[in-house]
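Q: What would this chain look like folded?
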Amino acid sequence: MPTLKIDGKEITVEKGTTIIRAAEQLGVEIPHYCYHPGLSIAGNCRMCLVEVEKMPKPQIACHIQCLDGMVVHTQTKSVQKLREHILEFLLVNHPLDCPVCDQAGECRLQDYYMKHGLYDSRLNENKVKKSAKAVPIGPTIMLDSERCILCSRCVRFTDEISKTGEFGIFNRGDHSEIGIYPGRELDNKYSGNVADICPVGALTDRDFRFKCRVWYLAKTESICPGCARGCNITVEANLERPHHANGERIMRLKPRFNGEVNDWWMCDAGRYGYKFIDHDRLLEPLIRNQGTVQTTGWNDIVEEVIKSLKGVLKKSKDELAVLVSPEMTNEELYLAKKLFVKELGLERVLLLRTKADGDQDDLLIRSDKHPNRKGAEWIGFEESKRAIQEVIDQGLKGGLKGLILFGQDLAALYPGRNVEDLLQRLDVSVFVGSNHNLTSEHVQFILPAATYAEKNGTFTNFQGRVQRIREAIPPAGQSKAESEILTLFADHLKLDWSYENEEQIFDSLRRSVPQFQGMNYSKIGREGVPVE
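A: My prediction, written as structure tokens:
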């Protein structure tokens, strides 16, 4: 393991570590454009030049590996002058688009000019416009070749990560341009990542373009709920001016690095799957009675639900079923089991998916489209298609009197089974969920639930890694997290529950479920907690 000095700071690194990676470990920033830790080394932007003692000329820090005894300088006058020259070269024909560029605020040309440039330009003539502006190259991405600095990150991403190879560099010399191969478009399942890794405004996200300036965004670390992978993400919301985007509060989702789960990437299905958060929501408790729907308060509706459930329980516990969802957090599933199984003694508290299985690949995407099936299994829920079918059959025959659904659109999951008729036969039917669906239009009680972006808690991904979700925006309307709804149930049942937040629920969970033992809610950080 070589030991070296960078700007006077000594560090020992693994063999094969490059200078730029060693500098990162020391907190020393070496500017760069073409280098990305998840891609192969291109070494073409030359922005990361540093001086290495006993080497005759400056070296690119992204390519040179650390050697024992090496002494590196990143802030000498000659290095600073080289950075100025590189920036001046890159900006020779770069358009003066900053006021109207969607990359403004997170553009490395802007950032590095202010940190490492600030030179007096030697060019007085007008910029030469060589390329078409804002050309859509696929469903998700817009290309502005005029802004491109030929870092080749997008080319390497589609060659090495998505392995779809749509991008190429065409022509030669100062006529070189990034583009899509003729007859193709950028339509792979990970296309949105090229906008993330583009260091300038050449590749922009069509979904996010001109929706919101980045300095208005509030960023919250969370987990993508799109599949069992549990990609680490940031939820980026505009809480100040949501009317700028048709009332939407969530502006975009972006991947967050986790080397054990998703590296630097996320799929397009997860990236653009946030629209349900601010559209077609259930916003207030509703009671449906003989075809009419009445708005009510939380205490009133929970009191009515508990009264109806007690009526069914007095006759037979076998006539009441509860279907929990693998989209609920660990804390919510734990409370559901504690309430319905332990306190009420129900035998049919079953796990039912809210989505059918889908596609899967070798990169990130999992066929299981639920974020917490593993957590549900640990807590003691196991999906049984046969048991679910028995519940439906019993209901259609009139033998089921009560049904509580947590997010499941039973009518869509079981088309042709006349679920609407089943719901009409029940003495009590309860839907706890965030959005309108076919099932919510036929149940008796509708309890609006918060989405994953509006609450705190944990998910357990398919690897057994427990990860945190965090509240990024306030719950829409009067919606509440399922944990709050279940606690309201317990209060009206006069149960002695003293939970005030998700941390307290998790503390009780970890003492009850073996797989969670030894975990600490407040210490579940960016990397999550893998099961031993």
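DSSP finds 14 helices and 23 strands in the chain.
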